[in-house]
Specification:
The complex is a heterodimer. By secondary structure, chain A is of the alpha/beta class. Chain A contains 7 helices and 7 strands; from the N terminus they run H-H-E-E-H-E-H-E-H-E-H-E-E-H. Chain A has helices spanning about 1-35, 40-45, 70, 85-100, 115-125, 140-145, 170-180, and strands at about 55-60, 65, 75-80, 105-110, 130-135, 150-155, 160-165. A 7-stranded mixed beta sheet of chain A has the order 2-1-5-4-3-6-7. In chain A, strand 1 and strand 2 form a beta hairpin. In chain A, helix 4 packs across helix 7 (about 170-180). Chain A is elongated. Chain B is mainly alpha-helical. Chain B has one domain (about 1-175). Chain B has helices at about 1-25, 30-35, 45-65, 70-95, 115-130, 140-175. Chain B is globular. The chains are: A alpha/beta, B mainly alpha. The interface between A and B is medium-sized, with 20 and 22 residues.
Amino acid sequence: MEDFLFYSVIILWFLQIFNGFLLILLFRQFGEVYLSTSDSISRDGVAMGEKALDHICFSYTKSEEVTWSSIIEKPAIIAFVSPDCKPCREMLSHWNTVQKQLSEKVQFILVFTGEDRKVRKIIQEFQLQGEIILDSKEQSFHHFKVRVTPFAFAVEKELIVKDKGLCGTKEQLYLLAESITKGDEFK
Amino acid sequence: MGEHFINILIIHTASFFILTGTAKLFSLKQFLLYTADFQILPRPLSYAAGSLIPILEIGGGFLLLNYGWWNMGAAILLVLLTLFGFSLLKIINSGRKIRCGCYGKWLAAEADIFSLGKAIYFFFLLLLVSASVPSTGIHLSIPAIVTGFLLTLLVIAAQKMWQLYQQNKQQLQNKR
């Protein structure tokens, strides 16, 4: 009897580890289904045609607190990024190029979440241009209803969302820009 | 109790390597192609190394079960796991997606983070076993064999689940 209990306990412990592993996979699978499909992404963020709520944020460029309405001067692309996300780094490597090309018509705003130290490091690493917002308390993320990064909005001057979506590539940035520049095509 | 537990772990480790070695041996041609895909060694050398791997795995597994030779078996398997771990790290860092051929054609397995985790798991299991092999020898009782073999099946089931998860993830990405 003692032997039976001993072997059963070992098998049950390993089964528990296996079950734990399955649960992790299941949660990750739910995450993939809920967060990563085009349907779920279209549900993310402030709805198209709606106006994002104006609120105060910290401008890294101006080193002071500002309101969103005060920093938006023209139709803008607002990209939400995190220093630890790999696709964000991929997007940031194209940020300056796209910005230089379209800066006459479109304003480019980066919203960083995460640790201040990491954000400053990444800004230096990529020599990022344009308006940069540090959103360490994720207030702007909350107001714009952003859950995944890199996520971007194409907004009009009044903060009305014209287009939105993931923005991991240069092409996605161009597509977003097209939606606020009255059909201009960029390559 | 401790001795029984170590016996189970020895059987678990040995049965895993015997099973995977046999699976590789049964689909050796395919396994050699998978090994060459790692692009760590020049092709002729990788074929030579690939032919040796299943034999070393089966040999190492059986030696581990033999009390007089268990340390030789453990050494062979530890070296194999270390080399495999470094190769996997290289593949993961390069971002390439290739099959690892860990189970030959029998079960699809990629050279990914799961395979690395599995290699680390068996590496530490072997270290633990090496440090605490019972002085009275290795006893292959039926309950220990059944339990050890069940643990091996759980590892293989975990591999299958991981593979299914990866396939689903890929399908979701394609649907985007």
